[in-house]
Here is the input.
Amino acid sequence: MNEVPITQRIECENCPLNDIPHLRPLEDSQRSLISTLKTGEMTAPAGATVLVEGSGNAYLFSILSGWGFRYKTLDDGRRQILNYVFPGDVIGLQGSLMDEMQHSIEALSPLVLCVFQKTDLPKLFSNLPQLAYDLTWLTAREEIMLDEHLLSVGQRSALERTAYLIAFLHQRARAARMLEGQKSIPVTQQHLADTLGLSIVHTNKTLRRLAILKALRWEKGGCTVLDETILLHISGWEGLPALKRPYI
Amino acid sequence: MNEVPITQRIECENCPLNDIPHLRPLEDSQRSLISTLKTGEMTAPAGATVLVEGSGNAYLFSILSGWGFRYKTLDDGRRQILNYVFPGDVIGLQGSLMDEMQHSIEALSPLVLCVFQKTDLPKLFSNLPQLAYDLTWLTAREEIMLDEHLLSVGQRSALERTAYLIAFLHQRARAARMLEGQKSIPVTQQHLADTLGLSIVHTNKTLRRLAILKALRWEKGGCTVLDETILLHISGWEGLPALKRPYI
DNA sequence: CGCCCGGTTGACACACCTCAACAAGGGTGG
DNA sequence: CCACCCTTGTTGAGGTGTGTCAACCGGGCG
Here is the structure.
């Protein structure tokens, strides 16, 4: 499933990321430089494993469309979902900077990925300092999200934690314009449980409490946020900083 | 306590970091360039808060000596320790890249910090691509550690988690040459509890179990690892990748 | 039709939390 | 020098949040 043919189809001028208001627009000169680095595209169906822990993959990807998640597993199968990935996110950087990936990535919905060669990374730092800066910015932003997840799993109760997670996914998805047309967040309760560090049964009961509070509605294969204010209030989370983020 | 006088005392050629074998040595040209960016030094006594969540600090620091930790708190006082910082680590990058810090940093032992101006960061990316690359490398490494912490807090049992944390601190401290002369890890059980997401009482009982297994010994104000193999075995952790890491 | 997957619910178990009391230092002030 | 307090660590008893087990439901799909 990692062997999907790589072909270039979308030109960078028509990149779907250009239309997402949450992303800081690229200058034309930057875009043309990026387009020289772009190797091609890759698609992955929902449920596919895009990157595998322990592998030393040769590519760096930027997500053009779709949902996915990063995770690690223990030997006996316990799985921790670390974070979710959205259009504009860069994945595979670990495999490019270090020798191998320390986590895996799986598609939640069909993914379209923009492919770069990991060997171009030093070139990017030498020739495109602004893009290198953006890349570091994105990595620092990932750290901010992980910090909040860790605070959540370590200190918040099941109800607080679940409210936080749903609000987090809602904010990120909305920023990426992925909830237009009443679309819901495409996760199973097992995904949420593995993110929260809770059992699936308790996750279910906690979600029902939030549904009774009219904070969300569970639909087949996903959930829809009805009242983000309640979720933020329950979790005591302030929400993501409203920064225009760069992309590559 | 954030107002310790800033003065330059140590020349970069005599930087204590040069002597730590775990760090990839700088080339002379790099070191001289860094020395032009170095603004001075700052010291902080044990227990001092070096950086505060929500502040937009003007500096970027590299740790020359001492132990510290990063943490976040909830409104009602619950605290989650996110990670520990060691000599060679860079802190304050969030305040430099974004508007403000999303976490605080406190000194566990007296800290000596090397101070850089945050406004020099774009200059560093433009003029010193290798150092910018190293900075990104360090950020990616921080992400790897956070991923493992999250896996730990989310999925591992109290015993597994505690074993992991002690082994982790031991490996990092040893790499930084901070355990020479029978020195122990200078944390209280409250620190460990706040890292593990456990109560202090249960942390105490779990540490005693590990002590009975002869994996560690608790001493006044810290712990000493007696048998790292046991800790790794209990936690099912493979240890930190043995990479020579860069520093700035 | 029948199977499988995802979601729901109740009963019960247990890992971990809270409360509480105490011990051993270390620091400080008289 | 002692007296006192505060911090840190230790231990027991009992409570609870969350896990485990198990049964069932509905829909999608072969």
The radius of gyration of chain A is 18 Å.
